[in-house]
Amino acid sequence: MTELTTRASSINRALDQIGDKWCLLILQEVFWGINSFGGILQETGISRGVLSDRLKWLQDHDCLRRRGGARHPSYHLTHKSVDLYHNALMAVAWEDRYYDTPDIQAVRLVHRNCGKRFEPLMTCGHCHGAVDGRDVSFQPGPGATRDVRDKKVRRRSSLSADAIPSERHVYRNLVNLVGDRWTANVIALAFHDLHRFDEFRRELPVATNILADRMRFLVEQGIFETRPYQQRPLRHEYFLTDKGWDLFPWFLTVLQWGDRWCDPDGAGPPMELTHTACGHALQGRVVCDQCGEEVRPDEVDFTILNLERKAVRSSG
Ligand SMILES: [Zn+2]
Ligand SMILES: [Zn+2]
């Protein structure tokens, strides 16, 4: 039996841990301060069995810590999952830009340091400019090997936002795109200037019909646009739209999180990024667009709908 392998990638490693649609929705609720089994059940609309399963999965991967007795357990962020805070902010920012979502318009983020309502912005740690994925180049890093991909990784692939039962729609369009393993992989590869179907297929151990289905979905969702490169037979290349490129900051937070938390052999990053706009190694920093300071989870207050929420804290 041949093993399934792909290029070592911190994005894939990270998403294999937390990228399942249900895991993303559960973490979102815990970020909003919903901690009880019943609370998460109600807010996400997940079935009990799936919720138990994913809570266990997230605990096994040190992304949630359980407190309290068997009757009234509650689930809390760990240092590892609180480190996904910038990722959650980038999800909200993208969703807000491309979807008319009342739940998001009800979110108010206030940066305690400057006292202002703010938008989170992905910037380069060196030149402080806003990061655009088109101004980033990739080089193999010390950990550039191949990863064996576990076929059993739990990634659901129902491709309809309506299939997400959550009452809360804060970033369900994004969850719907990246909560599918292959769709997320395809987007990540597109940042590397892959355009042709066969190029994606060479990189991914996935059946042709499934890949074709995902490519079609990404076109429908406005992430890719197609341009013909051959007439007989007609063949198209896939290009990221602005909406697709604007997912880059979200993926960058996933990549940096994966570099920090998903490097089992301690080999170092599989990939190094350069911000070509300034020529320096890219270390993405999420800052407050009002004062330019890096946004830290314990320095942000937010309100959502009618819920007052204070800063997120790890159970650390
Ligand atoms: Zn820079
Ligand atoms: Zn600020």
Word description of this protein:
The chain has 13 helices and 15 strands. With 316 residues, it is an alpha+beta fold. The protein has one domain. A 4-stranded antiparallel sheet has the order 5-4-14-15. Strands 7-11-12 form a 3-stranded antiparallel sheet, with no helix packed on it. A hairpin with a 4-residue loop joins strand 11 and strand 12 (280-281). The mean pLDDT is 88. The structure holds zinc ion (2 copies).
What's a quick, concise take on this entry?
The model has no long low-confidence stretch (mean pLDDT 88). The protein has one domain (7-309).
Radius of gyration: 19 Å
Task: Supply the number of structural domains.
Answer: 1
Query: What is the H-and-E element order?
Result: EHHHHEEHHHEEEEEHHHHEEHHEEEEE
Give the termini distance in whole angstroms: 42 Å
Give unreliable regions as ranges: none
Shape: globular
Strand content: 15-25%
User: Given the helix and strand composition, which structural class is it?
Assistant: alpha+beta
Let me know the average pLDDT: 88
Number of helices: 13
The largest β sheet comes out as: 4 strands, antiparallel
Please list the strands of the largest sheet in the order they lie side by side.
5-4-14-15
Instruction: Identify the bound ligands.
Output: zinc ion
Report helical residue fraction: 25-40%
- Count the E strands: 15
